[in-house]
């Protein structure tokens, strides 16, 4: 069995994932079950497209339920670093080659609670900027081998 990793989430992301789990285990599961029952009542299941689609939806729903259970079980509510410092849970504005962009540094799981795109701390750019401060200029090596310079314009905690 694979070792389960800690999932760093903001409180808002945790709450949204928990709400999704409740919906999937309750109303969504019931709706899918009703569709399967209705399709089964139509007769021949081997050529029943509605039945096959409902069974596929059931499989996807159950898979997502299992994924959410594991994430929530391994969740740790993160405390974003103070303003000015880049860390997990920071909204960071960077400039690359004259283009300014704003991201959240953190796991893709926190994307459910923010309108920003997310940069993983394990990515080359994420690893390069983490721990630095607004005003710092850092260089990292992109996957294609190019050296890219990034200027950190601003860093603030992701508001809940």
UniProtKB/TrEMBL annotation:
Record-annotated Transcription elongation factor GreA/GreB N-terminal domain positions: 8-77
Protein's UniProt keywords contain DNA-binding: yes
InterPro entries given in the database record: GreA/GreB_C_sf (IPR036953), TF_GreA/GreB_CS (IPR018151), Tscrpt_elong_fac_GreA/B (IPR028624), Tscrpt_elong_fac_GreA/B_C (IPR001437), Tscrpt_elong_fac_GreA/B_fam (IPR023459), Tscrpt_elong_fac_GreA/B_N (IPR022691), Tscrpt_elong_fac_GreA/B_N_sf (IPR036805)
HAMAP family xref list: GreA_GreB
MF term (GO), any: translation elongation factor activity
This protein's record includes keyword Transcription: yes
Domain Transcription elongation factor GreA/GreB C-terminal: 83-156
Alphabetic keyword roster: DNA-binding, Elongation factor, Protein biosynthesis, Transcription, Transcription regulation
Taxonomic source organism: Pseudoscardovia suis
Gene Ontology biological process terms, A to Z: DNA-templated transcription elongation; regulation of DNA-templated transcription elongation
Protein name as it appears in the record: Transcription elongation factor GreA
Family: Belongs to the GreA/GreB family.
Function summary: Necessary for efficient RNA polymerase transcription elongation past template-encoded arresting sites. The arresting sites in DNA have the property of trapping a certain fraction of elongating RNA polymerases that pass through, resulting in locked ternary complexes. Cleavage of the nascent transcript by cleavage factors such as GreA or GreB allows the resumption of elongation from the new 3'terminus. GreA releases sequences of 2 to 3 nucleotides.
